[in-house]
Batch of 2 targets.
Target 1
Amino acid sequence: MSPEKKKPAKKPRPPRQKMPEQAPEERAKNFLEVPYGYTPEIAETEASRCLQCRKPACVQGCPVAVDIPGFIRRVAEGDYLGAARVIKSTNSLPAVCGRVCPQEEQCEQLCVLARKGESVAVGRLERFAADYEREHGDGSVPEKAPPSGKRVAVVGSGPAGLTCAGDLVKLGHEVTVFEALHKAGGVLVYGIPEFRLPKAIVQAEVDYLKSLGVKVELNRPIGRSETIDELLEGDFDAVFVGTGAGLPYFLGIDGENLNGVYSANEYLTRSNLMKAYLFPEYETPIIKARRVAVIGGGNVAMDAARTALRLGAEKVSVVYRRSREEMPARNEEIHHAEEEGIDFQLLTNPTRILGDGNGWVQGMECLRMQLGEPDDSGRRRPVPIEGSEFVMDVDVVVVAIGNGPNPLIPQTTRGLDTSKWGNINADEQSGQTSKPGVFAGGDVVTGAATVILAMGAGRRSAAAIDEYLGRPLEDGTSGAGSSQEPPADGRS
């Protein structure tokens, strides 16, 4: 009797592949990008981990519906340019998303492998494919629909605006993006530091959209140079508003008017957009501090703290009123900050900023906190500990507790409904506002959120605008005006 044939043992699945990066002691002194990215060999190994599910849950977790198994399969096969084409069929900014999208809370969270181990590194593979195409691609662009004869104005060149513009131009419409600043990219250029998102990457993505036919007009603050009404009364058939959340919030404590107190918005804009870190090559001053306190616990706070360190501060402290578990920043950003030597003053709340008698910051008085019952956000509410006051020795304070919507468009546009927080009221799916022909999406609608969620809103609005241009509403209404939830507590 012949012995039973044994099935060949399954080849063990490789572990999730780490991404090579600069050593903490080196990167803390420069503004070069921290991760180096995957090599082709590492990328193929990581891509081989994908199970190629018949009903991929990961796609459901992607706000722009990238065919994740499709592009990963091509990476595994060595067809890197094909992988990039698959991504770009629904995502116009893959090199950006591969760097700053919180995949761990979206597509990767739904990966089947995450149930018993580590998910496929979707974001890292997306970055690899996008970077490979930028360096080795032939510059080809996808086929566009025939010209529709319709013109759309996109106000704001951040993630929502750029995504909306890219989709609309592929649908055959003529698109002009109006940007108030001297560089296109919105928060991608003024808010996110070079070491996380090199500006050359953003410019390459903008150039790609230009190659599709998108026109970009800089130094055009709509609401000042001209209004939304004037755009509609002129050459444009529809308008998309994606002006973001650029209005900084402050604590409202004594001393916030002292020299040396920055909003994170100003601090990062000076460094990122205006290149203060290259002073005097660029004529943008920024205070070179000895000790810096950054108030807040989100990604913006991490960006500001790590920027301060690279600007030469001896000590940088993140001051956050809850514990590490409640911090809204990505774990990767917190981890990088910790590796670089950022001091975390947790369960700590500033009560006033102290001056030196000459109008400059000298210190910051704080209270220790403890966590009580959950508040409306679902997180435990920080409660002051009586008698726990202490003073931090600081000479610069950066307030990173959130931003509100840019008020310029709502203030200068007739018939545009807003919420009590100043956000534009727009239909969640279509982006239609209370004003016919005007659509809106991204942070100006939802309050400060993520790049990828803004991109998802841009995509949905592009589809709705395409429908609107092809079949105008008979009653002249927009079906909009849905009330929005309030922005999340910026202080977190």
Note: The longest strand covers residues 361-374.
Target 2
Amino acid sequence: MRPNHIAAILLRQYYLMRGSVARLLPLFAWVAVDILLWGFITRYLNSVSRATFSFVPLLLGAVLMWDFFSRVMQGVTTSFLEDVWSRNFLNLFATPLTVAEYVSGLVLTSIVTSTIGLIVMLVLAMTVFGLSYLSFGLILIPFLLVLFLFGIALGIAGAALVLRLGPASEWFIWPIPAMVSPFVGVFYPIATLPRWMQYIAHVLPPSYVFEGMRALILHQPFHAGLLFWGIDLAVFYIFLAAWFFVRVYRYTVRTGLLARYSAESAA
């Protein structure tokens, strides 16, 4: 892979955002709304409950983590959809750009945008509501790593789905984080789920993050080995998503779907 080709994908996204407030504002606005909304909810719960723990790290911390995951995934899919909406996708692959370089550029774009969102969320949560992630120590790094890797995997898989089914299928992409959230126990322990949902939770990497975070906050036993199993799962899903994207891309080229890619479904 050629680094200058990957950097070109990131540079294109930079130019798009620099010239459009509508693209730049969502990096800050929605994450700020989420943090403020859930922050005041946790303050209310602390004032009316007799719990021996604070709801701020338990709920607001979970919201921050889940928003980070969602921003990572959307960083990949939105960058891909920008090329779809502008009818630029076919032009990109008329150049010497390879699939690996293009996907790497999407991932790099997601790293930048999700980092910006994470900084905004952390600043708001720490300054307004007193949430401190420093108490987690170095284990915060694998927490974020699992969510980042799985977000990248879902983003690549979502882009492949749109590539195969056509631009109209983008509506299948936006609900994915909401569809995954009930299975990974963002706000409640996995043990509260029905048995069949627990089986699904065990193969979803974020479930190990939120179970571990709750255990640390509530001073319960936590096996760090499970978190590293979550990292292994997330890496596996990235390779699986990359394989899926390449297979779909080759299929669209071979069948001619790529050449007639338009605003209508290509299925």
Note: The chain has eleven helices and no strands.
